[in-house]
Amino acid sequence: MKATLKPIVAALLLATAAGAAQADTVRFATFNASLNRDASGQLLSDLANPLASGVGTTVANRIQQAHNVAEIIQRVNADVLLVNEFDFDLNGTPTASSTAMGLGYSSNASKLFQDNFLSAAHGNAVRGMTSGVDYAYRYTPNTNTGLASGFDLNNNGVVAGGDDAYGFGNFGGQYGFTIYSKYEIVSVRSFQTFLWKDMPGNLLTNDPTANKLGNFYSQAEIDALRLSSKNHVDVTVRINGQDVHFLTAHPTPPTFDGAEDRNGKRNHDEIRFWADYVAGADYIYDDQGNTGGLEAGAKFVIAGDYNADPFDGDSFKGTVNGEQYNAIGQLLDNPLINTSVTPSSDGGTAAAGYPSNNGSANQSHVGDPSQDTADFSDAAPGNLRVDYVLPSANLDVKGSGIYWPVDPDTSAANNTGDAFDLVGTFGNPGLYGGLPSSDHKAVWVDVQVVPEPEQYALLLAGLGLIGAAARRRR
Question: For the whole model, what pTM was predicted?
Answer without folding.
Answer: 0.92
